[in-house]
Amino acid sequence: MPSVFIKTYGCQMNVRDSEQVARDLASRGYDLVEHEEKADVVLLNTCSVRDMAEQKAIGKMQTLGGRKKRRQHQVIGFLGCMAQSRGASILDELPDVDLVVGTQKFHEVGRHVDELFRQHRENPAAVPAPRVDVAEETGSQNTIRDHLLAPRQVTAFVSIMQGCNMHCTFCIVPSTRGAERSRPLAEIVAEVESLVAQGVKEVTLLGQIVNLYGRHEFPSVDGRSPFTQLLQAVCAVPGLQRVRFTSPHPIGFKDDLIACFRELPNLCEHVHLPLQSGSDLMLKSMHRAYTRAGYLRLIDKLRVAQPGIAFTTDIIVGFPGETEENFRQTCDLVREIAYDNAFVFRYSPRRDTPAATMEGQLPEDVKMERNQELLRILDEIAAQRTKKLLGREDEILVEGESRTNPSRFQGRTRTNRLVLIEANDRWRGELLPVRLTESTGFTWYAEPKLV
């Protein structure tokens, strides 16, 4: 059978979707390869959240299209958010593309690829017509459920819902991912149980607005939201040692969810809590549905429930109408909270979103200057934290080889700090006590604390 290479852009949801596609293709007999040069099928799973991600995917596909002139049998395709957003119009710019599959049709990729190869075998001289499949499909949230685990893999993503109803003015996700749709709790728990039986020790629950899971489909019980019920059920799976979730929305943190950080021992002490701006005026313009003061109260409640909890966040600089004072309010809030890390993005207009046509669009040099200043503040916070943590003991779940240094293994603390240690196969997949010895600011080095 042919070989397949899948390149993924964007978030953990995209990584999980690519894994589902890979699992389906492998079950059909396709050989999964790590490089595109000799692959018979090359699929790009795309992101539309920022223009840069789209431009990277387009540039990559242009390169693949040029190579295809020498390999006529090769199948190249777009999957995911960009495919959903642009649909058949992609073919106007990239006529060599064979396959365009949207966010609700990942489970159909294998069938489409099979059909393209069948047509080529039956008539090698003909070029099969491109396939575009971006229609909505009822129940698509239930199709991302199978895993392709590597040997001794100990962490896994679990998709619990798709879509978003929040309609932030800068965000294209509601149009690329559709409305919120959640999977049944029992099916998610069964998936986690299967993963644990295969050696997984940590799962991360995924959703566009993960902590609003089930709010349209399932009832609250005894004051517990559907997401809190799910967390409690997943944390009760025997043998599961760590649970995480991402990405939540601040409005989804009610008292029952906050209490989970105090009551569930295997719920990790880390929350990725998107801020976007520290200015109430900008938050209102973004349609974020919370205020600066409300966000700070939430931070305080979580710290009371779980002292030592780590916070990471997303921030947009240069949103339309953002004044210097608005930006200063963001900087001040970042210093006050002292995030463990943050993803800072320059505002990027997205088609068919309200913010794209707002007055007060800022020049790129202003966005870049604000981006760099905020990164400097985060570096200062990281340097201060390093002084406090160097020499301390912690525990990591050793995941395996570092992505950037094969002579080292990587793992994460419960607070989600990335830690590198010397490579030793007997530590792979283990919860390992370590002493933190060095830091680059956001990556830590450690030595095992052996007993």
What this model shows, in words?
The chain has 451 residues and is of the alpha/beta class. Helices cover 35% and strands 22% of the residues. It contains 13 helices and 19 strands. The chain has helices at residues 12-27, 51-68, 81-86, 90-93, 109-122, 173-177, 185-197, 226-235, 255-263, 280-286, 292-305, 324-337, 364-389, and strands at residues 3-8, 31-32, 41-46, 75-80, 99-101, 131-133, 155-159, 161-162, 181-182, 202-206, 242-246, 270-272, 310-317, 341-346, 393-401, 408-413, 418-422, 431-439, 443-448. The strands form five sheets. It has a six-stranded parallel β-sheet, sandwiched between helices. It has a five-stranded mixed beta barrel with strand order 15-16-17-19-18. Strand 13, helix 12 (324-337) and strand 14 (341-346) form a beta-alpha-beta unit. Helix 7 (185-197) runs parallel beside helix 8 (226-235). The model has no long low-confidence stretch (mean pLDDT 95).
Summarize the SSE layout with pairings:
Layout: E1 3-8, H1 12-27, E2 31-32, E3 41-46, H2 51-68, E4 75-80, H3 81-86, H4 90-93, E5 99-101, H5 109-122, E6 131-133, E7 155-159, E8 161-162, H6 173-177, E9 181-182, H7 185-197, E10 202-206, H8 226-235, E11 242-246, H9 255-263, E12 270-272, H10 280-286, H11 292-305, E13 310-317, H12 324-337, E14 341-346, H13 364-389, E15 393-401, E16 408-413, E17 418-422, E18 431-439, E19 443-448
Parallel strand pairs: 1-2, 1-3, 3-4, 4-5, 5-6, 7-10, 10-11, 12-13, 13-14, 17-19
Antiparallel strand pairs: 8-9, 15-16, 15-18, 16-17, 18-19
